């Protein structure tokens, strides 16, 4: 069994449980991440903030349009829209979701099953003390799984 820790992403950018949405948005933009784990002072995972949730909160009509429209050819008019700026002061605790996570020594298959079952692209990875140490992405876990699987087959003929 290959542990999920072999393909986790580090460092992990996190946000404190007492933070406001404005700080989370700043971190997401600065580090270009779509998943921001929410941690307590001891780096224990208490929640997860997803970019999609932030966008839905600030621009619900825009997000609904993106999910349902395939006939618009120019979205530039939507890029200029700014809505609900007062929401930036909202506490993270009010917005975060329940986190799904895996232990560092969990196998790749367990991580893949959890991601599929809960329809998440990334899973926080925890150490033996339940502290956040990495992020397992669907792409990395899947590629590591395929690489290991292919080692058991003879090389393909070209």
Give a quick rundown of the structure.
With 158 residues, the chain is α/β, with parallel strands linked by helices.
Features:
158 residues; alpha/beta; single chain; CBS-domain; globular
Cα Rg: 18 Å
**So how many helices?**
6
Tell me about the largest β-sheet. 3 strands, mixed
How many strands?
Answer: 6
Query: By CATH's scheme, which homologous superfamily applies?
Result: CBS-domain
Strand content: 15-25%
Distance between the termini: 30 Å
Level-1 CATH class name = Alpha Beta
Question: What do these coordinates show?
Answer:
With 158 residues, this protein is an alpha/beta fold. The chain has a single domain, classed as Roll (CBS-domain). The protein has six helices and six strands, in the order βαββαααβαββα. It has a three-stranded mixed β-sheet. The chain has a three-stranded mixed β-sheet with strand order 4-5-6. Helix 5 links the parallel strand 4 and strand 5. Helix 2 (51-58) packs across helix 3 and helix 5 packs across helix 6. The two termini are 30 Å apart.
SSE diagram, text form:
Layout: E1 15-16, H1 21-31, E2 35-39, E3 45-50, H2 51-58, H3 60-68, H4 76-79, E4 102-103, H5 108-118, E5 122-126, E6 132-137, H6 138-150
Parallel strand pairs: 1-2, 4-5
Antiparallel strand pairs: 2-3, 5-6
């Amino acid at each position: 069994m290959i542990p999920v820790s072999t393909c986790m992403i580090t460092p992990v950018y996190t946000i404190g449980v007492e933070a406001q949405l404005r700080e989370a948005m700043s971190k997401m933009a600065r580090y270009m991440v779509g998943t921001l784990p929410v941690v307590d002072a001891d780096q224990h995972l208490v929640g997860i903030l997803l970019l999609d949730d932030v966008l839905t909160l600030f621009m619900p009509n825009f997000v609904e349009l993106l999910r349902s429209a395939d006939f618009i050819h120019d979205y530039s008019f939507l890029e200029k829209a700014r809505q609900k700026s007062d929401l930036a002061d909202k506490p993270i605790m009010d917005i975060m979701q329940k986190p799904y996570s895996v232990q560092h020594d969990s196998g790749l298959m367990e991580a893949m099953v959890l991601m599929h079952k809960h329809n998440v692209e990334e899973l926080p990875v925890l150490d033996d003390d339940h502290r956040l140490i990495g992020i397992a992405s669907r792409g990395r876990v899947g590629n590591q799984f395929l690489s290991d699987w292919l080692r058991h087959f003879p090389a393909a003929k070209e």
